[in-house]
Write a structure and sequence with these properties.
The complex is a heterodimer. By secondary structure, chain A is mainly alpha-helical. Chain A has helices at residues 12-38, 56-63, 65-97, 103-111, 118-129, 137-142, 153-181, 185-193, 198-228, 230-236, 248-258, 262-291; strands spanning 41-43, 50-52. Chain B folds into two domains: 13-253, Rossmann fold, CATH 3.40.50.300; 266-381, OB fold (Dihydrolipoamide Acetyltransferase, E2P). Chain B contains ten helices and 18 strands. Chain B is elongated. Classes of the chains: A mainly alpha, B alpha+beta. Chain A: It comes from Bradyrhizobium australiense. Chain A: InterPro entries: MetI-like, MetI-like_sf, UgpAE/MalFG_permease. Chain A: The complex is composed of two ATP-binding proteins (UgpC), two transmembrane proteins (UgpA and UgpE) and a solute-binding protein (UgpB). Chain A: Belongs to the binding-protein-dependent transport system permease family.
């Protein structure tokens, strides 16, 4: 049931909404509209003159094979990161939900990585796996594995995926744990009496009851892998080797900031925005329908 | 010779509802539940259950009653297998189940909050336990539909629990238990989330259903009225121990301790220390020497100026009156008892006496009355309240 509050003053509700609206307009609508406008412009090399070019930036973009490659990279990267961080976090949360002795210490430790800035996390992982110095890279090489994320594209991808997953597990863990704790214990006990073993209880009772949490995290994680992993990628691989870890958001940065192609970069960010909006809309439309109970 | 004329049996509509056949598994084994010196000690050393022995016979309805925190729910959960047993044995149908998983104990439980699976339809809620046991779908269908008919849930099978009222959810929880056709039903305060009217209706339903299925049942409640009306055997618990076991009426008429005396019966029995004035009234009673506490139920008083030989007469000042229509409760105080006696929690303040009189006519507030009880209505207990004399 919706509860509605009635304001006597007609201005007050708008006034109360104003701070949020201002923030949204200044930090989202304004830059977004700027990006859209800029995607129709071409700047000269010195940034002094802009010329309206219509859809030329988009045409150029979709003619680039590298752009399709960055799309594919993004699909692989985001699928891996979202799937791994969600499933590992769920596994950890189910363990933490048991009555363990050091449960609270365990939970605190689990949450720490979330407090680490993405770039710092990236540097951490980069050092650990740097082929000639890395603490963990040396044993790998010692085992005869030719570990080299600086040259090997798959190794580079594995490294950014690991770092991004590590960073996101904390967040997912917190929500999963809260979700698990909100499932009434008696429902699970009823399942036990009804003859369902631990695995069956998990998949037929706990997992379906967690689905609102899972859905929420899916949306958040998709946005995370599309945008927030930028810092990690920049610190770990800088998009390399040979563009193997250049995701769409990284390409926006590389082309615009490093390549100086502001119009092309703006066109890319518009495409990216459309993709994320579409993905979120699809998730809400199709996945959310299944989480209702 | 003419065959005897057939006469339709005098079925009431309810009797018809409950006389529909319920199929039980062909081998219906005996399902006694026996507790032998059962104990529960938590890791911190807290002893929740301090050695409990009792037996529930096949098909009997046993009610565990006691104040909150007395261990009754813990004990039930131990029978269910949801809590470990740290001492003694629990035996279901001739098999010690201490180490057996809840699923394999052949029990079904109805929880206080119903514990329905919120994401499943009513049908699937009932079918879940059967599917886990790999029963054929058509057999499941038969059983669920039968249970739904008995519980009048036929129209709700496709609904989710959130679309049901409290009473309907309660029925689904019952249905989930009965489709399993277990040896034992366990009920953990199943009616306490319902409103008063529905609670009484469901109480009657549960009793009828249990009689119909004759499945051994253990029922936990803190409501002494539920306990009295449902039980074949009543187990009164307090502080992790059994205070008294027996037929509800026996317990009502002959409470073994002052705890039972004050817990069973509403309003509670009047318990008074047996001191000078009362003691002299009981001079002729052989039991009075040992006794330290006297108990008289409110309904055993008569307001009268006559003296019953061997009985007790109390001079009271009327402090408050509760008229509930069919009966009137008079709260009076005995002036000479007001001082120096500490009240125990849950009992009446010292010197206060409740008298129940039938009908709506009674004394006025401030009036002085004389409440008289006959000698056979007196309950005498040892001074510590632990022993009936």
């Amino acid at each position: 049931m919706e509860k509605s509050t009635v304001f006597n003053n007609r201005l007050l509700p708008y006034l109360l909404l104003l701070p949020q609206l201002v923030i949204t307009v200044v930090f989202f609508y304004w830059p977004a509209s700027q990006a859209i406008w800029q995607s129709f412009l071409r700047e000269d090399a010195f940034g002094l003159v802009s010329e309206y070019v219509g859809l030329e930036n988009y045409q150029a973009l979709f003619a680039q094979p590298e752009y399709y490659r960055s799309m594919l990279t993004t699909v692989i990267f985001s699928t891996l990161v979202a799937a791994l961080s969600l499933s590992i976090a769920l596994l950890f949360a189910t363990q933490a939900d048991k009555n363990l002795k050091a449960a609270s210490a365990y939970k605190t430790l689990m949450i720490w990585p979330y407090a680490v800035a993405p770039a710092v996390a990236g540097v951490l992982w980069f050092f650990m796996f740097q082929p000639s110095l890395g603490m963990l890279a040396r044993p790998l090489r010692g085992m005869g594995l030719d570990w080299n994320p600086l040259l090997n594209e798959n190794h580079a991808m594995m490294l950014v995926v690991m770092a991004s997953v590590w960073k996101q597990i904390s967040y997912n863990f917190l929500f999963f744990l809260a979700g698990l704790q909100s499932i009434p214990k008696s429902v699970i006990e009823a399942g036990a009496i009804d003859g369902a073993g631990p695995m069956r209880r998990f998949w037929t009772i706990i997992f379906p009851l967690l689905s609102p949490t899972t859905f929420f995290l899916l949306v958040v994680n998709v946005v995370y892998v599309f945008f927030d992993t930028f810092g990690i990628i920049d610190a770990v691989t800088g998009g390399g080797p040979a563009g193997a870890t250049t995701t769409m958001v990284y390409k926006v940065y590389a082309d615009g900031r490093l390549g100086g192609d502001l119009g092309g970069s703006a066109a890319q960010s518009v495409v990216l925005m459309v993709i994320v909006i579409a993905l979120t809309a699809i998730q809400f439309r199709y996945v959310e329908r299944k989480v209702q109970y | 010779m003419r065959p005897p004329q057939r006469v339709a049996p005098p079925y009431s509509p309810l009797a018809i509802r409950y006389s529909l056949p319920i199929r039980h598994s062909p081998v219906q084994s005996m399902a006694n539940v026996t507790l032998r010196n059962v104990r529960k000690t938590y890791v911190g050393g807290f002893e929740a259950i301090k050695g409990i022995d009792f037996e529930v016979g096949d098909g009997q309805f046993c009610v565990l009653v006691g104040p909150s925190g007395c261990g009754k729910s813990t004990l039930l959960r131990m029978v269910a297998g949801l809590e470990t047993i740290t001492g003694g044995e629990i035996d279901i149908g001739g098999r010690v189940v201490n180490q057996i998983e809840p699923a394999d104990r052949d029990i079904a439980m109805v929880f206080q909050n119903y514990a329905l699976y919120p994401h499943m339809t009513v049908y699937n809620n009932m079918a879940y336990g059967l599917r886990n046991r790999r029963m054929a779908e058509d057999e499941i269908k038969t059983r669920v539909e039968e249970a739904a008919r008995i519980l009048e849930l036929g129209a709700m099978l496709d609904r989710k629990p959130r679309q049901l009222s409290g009473g309907q959810r309660q029925r689904v929880a019952m249905g989930r238990a009965i489709v399993r056709q277990p040896k034992v039903f366990l009920f953990d305060e199943p009616l306490s989330n319902l409103d008063a009217k529905l609670r009484i209706a469901m109480r009657v339903e549960i009793r009828k259903l249990q009689r119909r299925l004759s499945t051994t049942s253990i029922y936990v409640t803190h409501d002494q009225l539920e306990a009295m009306t449902l039980a074949d055997i009543l187990v009164v618990m307090n502080g992790g121990q059994v205070e008294q076991i027996g037929n509800p009426l026996d317990i009502y008429q002959k409470p073994a301790t002052t705890f039972v005396a004050s817990f069973i019966g509403a309003p509670p029995m009047n318990l008074m220390p047996l001191r000078s004035e009362l003691k002299s009234q009981l001079a002729g009673d052989a039991r009075a020497g040992e006794a330290g506490i006297i108990g008289i139920r409110p309904e055993d008083f008569v307001i009268s100026n006559e003296t019953v030989s061997g009985g007790v007469a109390l001079g009271l000042t009327v402090e408050a009156i509760e008229r509930v229509g069919a009966e009137t409760f008079v709260y009076g105080t005995r002036q000479q008892e007001m001082q120096g006696v500490a009240a125990t929690p849950g009992e009446l303040p010292p010197g206060e006496v409740i008298v129940r009189i039938p009908g709506a006519i009674g004394p006025a507030i401030g009036e002085r009355i004389r409440a008289v009880a006959a000698p056979d209505k007196l309950h005498l207990f040892a001074a510590d309240g632990r022993k009936r004399i």
